[in-house]
Amino acid sequence: MKNFTFRKAVIEDKNSIWNIIQQAILRRKADGSNQWQDDYPNEQSIENDIVTDFGFVLVNEEKIIGYCAVIINYEPAYDAIEGKWLTNDDFVVIHRIAIDENYLGQGLSGKIIENVEKLAKKNNIFSVKVDTNFDNIAMMKIFEKRGYQYCGEVYFRGSARRAYEKVLK
Fold first, then answer.
1. How many CB atoms lie within 10 A of CB 136?
2. With CB atoms counted within 10 Å of each terminal CB, which end of the chain scores lower, N or C?
3. pTM assigned to the model
4. What's the CATH number where 148 sits?
5. Which domain holds residue 120?
6. Mind listing the pLDDT tens digit for each residue in 63-119?
7. What is the mean pLDDT of the chain?
């Protein structure tokens, strides 16, 4: 499994993406997490990602195996960080990272993040910001392994989340 493609999602990808998101929602619930248990993300949010060009898929041999949203210079919740970002320049935000359950444990979340970092640099943006729930230990480990630094807390729908940033070179 080495021939990965990372590309913008198109509307025809929606059902495959939604399937992966639903798997991730169930995994978070099984882990005892509150993350993604409040009807978000939902099918409409995925469709919105696609039509606004925020949705990206990781593809292996024509099969969509991963998803994320990539947003440039916009995340209102990040304006009110309790803590301090490393930079105040242009930035890319990664949201809604999810991997098909048949491909877990193969480092594919890291592969998605790596591709987003390349995309940022291609656009002359040298900061990537992310967040996750306090109980999403796996995602925190991925961020830290990839060199993201903990910057403080941000709030989404009333819940605190750990915020990270990586300055790209």
1. 19
2. C
3. 0.94
4. 3.40.630.30
5. 4-167
6. 999 999 999 999 999 999 999 999 999 999 999 999 999 999 999 999 999 999 999
7. 95
Bridge-based pairing state of the strands 92-99 and 127-132: parallel
| Integer Cα distance of 79 and 67 in angstroms | 25
Domain tally, the chain: 1
Dihedral of CA 117/29/81/47: which sign? Answer: positive
pLDDT tens, residue by residue, 12-60: 999 999 999 999 999 999 988 888 888 889 999 999 999 999 999 999 9
Q: Tell which residue, 115, 66, 116, has the closest CA to residue 91.
A: 116
Q: Using alpha carbons, list the distances in angstroms from residue 41 to 1, 77, 145, 150, 167.
A: 28, 16, 26, 24, 27
pLDDT for the residue 1: 53
Contact 60, 4 (CB under 8 A): yes
22: its two tokens: 């639903």
